[in-house]
Amino acid sequence: MLTDTYGRVATDLRVSLTDRCNLRCTYCMPEEGLRWLARPDLLTDDEVVRLVGIAVTALGVTEVRFTGGEPLLRPGLPGIVERCAALAPRPRLSLTTNGIGLERTAAALRAAGLDRVNVSLDTLRPDVFQDLTRRARHADVLRGLAAARAAGLDPVKVNAVLMPGHNDDEAPDLLAWALAEGYELRFIEQMPLDAQHGWTREGMITAEDILRSLRTRFRLTPEDAAERGAAPAERWLVDGGPGRVGVIASVTRPFCRACDRTRITADGQVRTCLFAREESDLRGALRSGAPDEEIARLWRVAMLGKKAGSGLDTPSFRQPDRPMSAIGG
Fold this sequence. Notes:
Helix content: 25-40%
Radius of gyration: 19 Å
Shape: globular
Strand content: 15-25%
CATH class: Alpha Beta
CATH architecture: Alpha-Beta Barrel
């Protein structure tokens, strides 16, 4: 098992398939984009599947989520999903995406074995979407969401980040829309993972801000904390249910004590936390011919270095050098 020195066991693996993205969200990267990883530095499809296989068959991982960058930009994604779905025991497979390519890929991904998707959508207003992402692709995301629902990628979850002066007035509208469409909405506090290092605690919309706004229109009843487990989102029943809404408050309500995640970057580095400043290289071991047992040992050793918490609430916190697009969500 992937156990750290605080007794936490990592059963949830996040695998970044690329650092590239076809949006330029203001809270993630500059308008001109970033310097992408060179293709030889990226894990190959075979290497991705091998690492997932080691995690599932030797290290106790039961959930695998493919991330980016934008993972739908990875040409071999359907094949990766199909091969990972064939593992025994079979992990539950999900995908975090901006949704732009889902209209053409959702059915094929479902057929390959993908179980569900998380789609990022911060606004219902096309003009605000273009302002936030610097791309006029709002309608593509809506069509992608509908395609995911039609393909049976259930539940379809929607992730929204609220930004001051842009969409901070939209929380109730987003929730009403998600409930009507049958999507599960998650609000996420903006995290210090932007490439520009422009994040400030004073400039973010907090979980309390979000809940206060939602309560102007809806009655929220907190779910039993025991049902949350290691899930990052606190959830509330909306108007008595069955609809729900979640808030992921990584900054103001850290959930590090229950963390069950381990992460692999697109270039094959183990990260024990989104906010870690250290990484452990598995790509080098893979390419030097190390057997699966040695890869598993290196992974276990890396997890022993996991810290008690993200350190976000300490004066000594320093933002990771890598932005979210390079780490993987």
